[in-house]
Write a structure and sequence with these properties.
With about 400 residues, this protein is an alpha/beta fold. It has two domains: about 220 residues, Rossmann fold; about 130 residues, 3-Layer(aba) Sandwich (Rossmann fold). Helices cover about 40% and strands about 20% of the residues. It is built from twelve helices and 16 strands. Strands 1, 2, 3, 4, 5, 6 and 7 form a seven-stranded mixed sheet that branches. Strands 9-8-10-11 form a four-stranded parallel sheet, with helices on both faces. A three-stranded antiparallel sheet has the order 12-15-16. Strand 10, helix 8 and strand 11 form a beta-alpha-beta unit. The N terminus is likely disordered.
């Protein structure tokens, strides 16, 4: 509790100072995993299921007990960086999972690379792991790359006869990256982007942006946001009488978004990880069994219908470490630079690992390792997720 009080006095939010330690067996765990995620703030609907999932991760791997030290960064970039420094400098963790959102994860790269501590991000942007360089050699991520999902959206639009698209996204690295990757996917699928608008995650109104989009008369609109803030443009489009197709990114694939958006989001389409609709997948789907395993574990702990794709990213991060730690232990012991390097190398060589979202095949140049098996197209129908063909 002393550490918690010190962090509150340092001006970090009280929620940031809430530390969850999950240890098995002894008080001094043999492998320490630091976690920073966004359990409060605008990204809370993503970070809460991630935090819940950490409690479900293995407490012993390779004969070593595992300690998870979990901090809340409040969806704030500076707090994510502070947490990362604390986990490395004070707690001396062997690896870090986090953060929830792209801006936070990007800001953490300099810290983990300088400390030569492997990090597994739960944020989506490919910029977190690419282009590969000396710093990103220490960074991995479990969510599907935005480009993979953008291609699914553009392909669906083309099949729906869409020719023109209006774009509205977050005014940060997430929105900027989505505009870049979607513009590329749109060109490949013969679509024209006729509007490009941005808004902040904390904005209370996007009426001006939506009026500009509606004035451009697009066949479809893509909302490039994540979590509950993505409901605002959807509701405003409905209020302004927009009749075209509306698409979201995989950043909205949780029940909190459905609750906030309500009937205004019925009929919207989005790409998502298979775990979102695992019970609707055919038995032949290679991800059905592994995604169902996560869903079963999560809903046993937190109730029927509570599963979230975002928690699945934390689950996959934990199981990547479950694969990598025994390999690293062949080279060195936890708490040493040699172990952290061995762990980084082992993560880079994970092959054919079935997770909640897909099949992971990491390489030296691809620290995500997912392919098209990690995506499905989903429609919101009567407030529920319905599997669609791509």
């Amino acid at each position: 509790m002393t550490t918690t009080r010190n962090w509150i006095r340092a001006g970090v939010t009280a929620s940031l100072a809430t530390t969850l330690v999950c240890a098995a067996g002894s008080a001094a765990a043999q492998v320490k995993i630091g976690v920073t995620l966004s359990a409060t703030g605008p990204a809370a609907s993503l970070g809460i299921p991630e935090k819940n999932t950490i409690a479900l991760l293995p407490k012993e791997i390779g004969g070593k007990s595992i300690e998870y030290i979990v901090l809340d960064d409040g969806s704030d970039t500076s707090h994510a960086v502070q947490n990362t420094h604390k986990l490395i400098d004070e707690d001396h963790v062997d690896a870090i999972i986090g953060s929830t959102v792209t801006p936070n994860s990007l800001a953490m790269i300099d810290v983990v690379s300088a400390a030569k501590t492997p990090m597994i991000s739960m944020a989506a942007s490919a910029a977190i792991i690419a282009p590969m360089d000396a710093k990103r050699a220490w960074v991995f991520k479990t969510p599907q790359n935005d480009g993979l999902m953008a291609d699914a959206i553009a392909s669906s639009m083309e099949k729906q006869g869409v020719k023109s698209v209006g774009f509205i996204g977050f005014a940060d690295a997430y929105g900027e990256n989505w505009y870049t990757v979607f513009s590329q996917a749109a060109a490949a699928h013969h679509l024209k982007v006729v509007a490009n608008e941005r808004y902040n995650r904390t904005d209370a109104s996007v009426t001006g942006q939506v009026l500009k989009i509606v004035a451009s008369n697009p066949d479809a609109v893509l909302i490039a946001g994540s979590g509950t803030p993505s409901a605002l443009p959807a509701k405003t489009l409905k209020e302004r009488g927009y009749k075209g197709r509306v698409y979201q990114t995989h950043g909205v694939a949780n029940n909190d978004f459905l609750r906030v958006c309500g009937k205004d989001c019925d009929g919207e389409l989005l790409p998502a990880g298979p775990v979102l609709v695992t019970e609707q997948l055919p038995d032949s789907n290679p991800v059905k069994a592994s995604s169902q395993a996560y869903r079963t574990a999560y809903e046993k702990a937190y109730g029927a219908g509570s599963v979230s794709t975002f928690g699945g990213h934390a689950w996959d991060a934990g199981h990547l470490l479950e694969r990598a730690i025994p390999e690293a232990l062949k080279t060195a012991q936890p708490g040493t630079p040699a172990f952290r390097e061995a762990l980084r190398s082992a993560l880079e060589n994970v092959k054919d690992m079935a997770g909640a979202h897909g099949i992971f095949n990491m390489t030296q140049t691809d620290h995500n390792g997912l392919d098209k098996r990690a995506r499905v197209m989903v429609e919101i129908v009567d407030g529920k997720w319905k599997l669609q063909g791509e």
